[in-house]
Design a protein that fits this description.
There is one protein chain. It contains eleven helices and five strands; from the N terminus they run ααααβαβαβααβαβαα. With 233 residues, the protein is of the alpha/beta class. The protein has a single domain, classed as SGNH hydrolase (Rossmann fold), CATH 3.40.50.1110. α9 links the parallel β4 and β5. α3 packs parallel to α8, α6 runs parallel beside α8 and α8 packs parallel to α9. The longest helix has 22 residues. It starts with a helix and ends with a helix.
Length: 233
């Protein structure tokens, strides 16, 4: 048993069961998806294994995000990367739990920390995966990580309304769109416990699109307004 597990009061049996559950999830996902998608076990192991970012400054940022989580009930919790960090939301009703640059395995690590279990949201929205696309991870591996995060959200907040927002279009790199769509398709088909929210109907646009900032990756105020309209449905 690790020092971290001992400090968090996680005995050998609890750690063993947690690791076994993760292994069973990975095996089940690989078996289910392999027929339709190229699902590499090594890549999928990376994206489904909770892992912090590998720089001190990045871990410090994640720890600050964890420390900032309120205790007790909140209305809405948004989880993800810079797309969550930059979301303009009313702070009194919405808690943002985003870290810029995070990949899905980094979100899994944050969800595995004890602070995550102390907040009790009524609604949870997950938006993650675009940085995995940029890193060249395969759709099957990214989807496996997103599905693992959805499973973890269900364990943490079984009574909450859970939703996964599909990865928005990457206008900065159109070559990623086939992989993005395939990732979203896998998540939509295999998602449990959470409902799927498709962003494409409100964010797909022409070169003159005003839903994105000049970097063509992050959303503008108009883009976030479009996502807001999906969340309240």
């Amino acid at each position: 048993m690790s020092t971290r597990d001992a400090c968090q009061g996680r005995g050998p049996r609890k750690v063993f069961l947690g690791n076994m559950a993760a292994s069973l999830f990975l095996s089940a996902f690989t078996w289910t998806a392999s027929a339709a998608y190229a699902c590499d076990r090594a890549e999928t192991t990376i994206t489904t294994s909770p892992s912090p970012r590998q720089t001190v400054s990045s871990v410090q940022t994640s720890l600050r995000a964890l420390a900032a989580l309120p205790r007790g009930q909140v209305d809405t919790l948004l989880i993800g990367d810079s797309l969550i960090v930059q979301w303009p939301v009313p702070p009194r009703s919405v808690t943002k739990f985003g870290v810029s640059g995070d990949r899905v395995q980094n979100v899994l690590w944050r969800l595995d920390q004890p602070e995550a279990g102390k907040v009790q949201p009524k609604r949870v929205f997950l938006l993650i995966g675009t940085n995995n696309l940029g890193a060249g991870n395969t759709p099957c591996a990214i989807a496996a990580g997103i599905l693992a995060a959805s499973e973890r959200m269900h364990v943490l907040w079984p009574d909450a309304d859970l939703a996964v927002i599909g990865i928005p279009v990457r206008r900065d790199n159109p070559s990623l769109d086939t992989a993005r769509r395939e990732t979203n398709d896998i998540v939509r088909e295999q998602l449990k416990y959470s409902r799927y929210i498709d962003p494409d109907g409100v964010l797909n646009c022409t070169d003159q699109c005003t839903s994105f900032k000049v970097d063509k990756l992050h959303l503008s105020a108009k883009g976030y307004e479009a996502l807001d309209s999906l969340l309240i449905k």
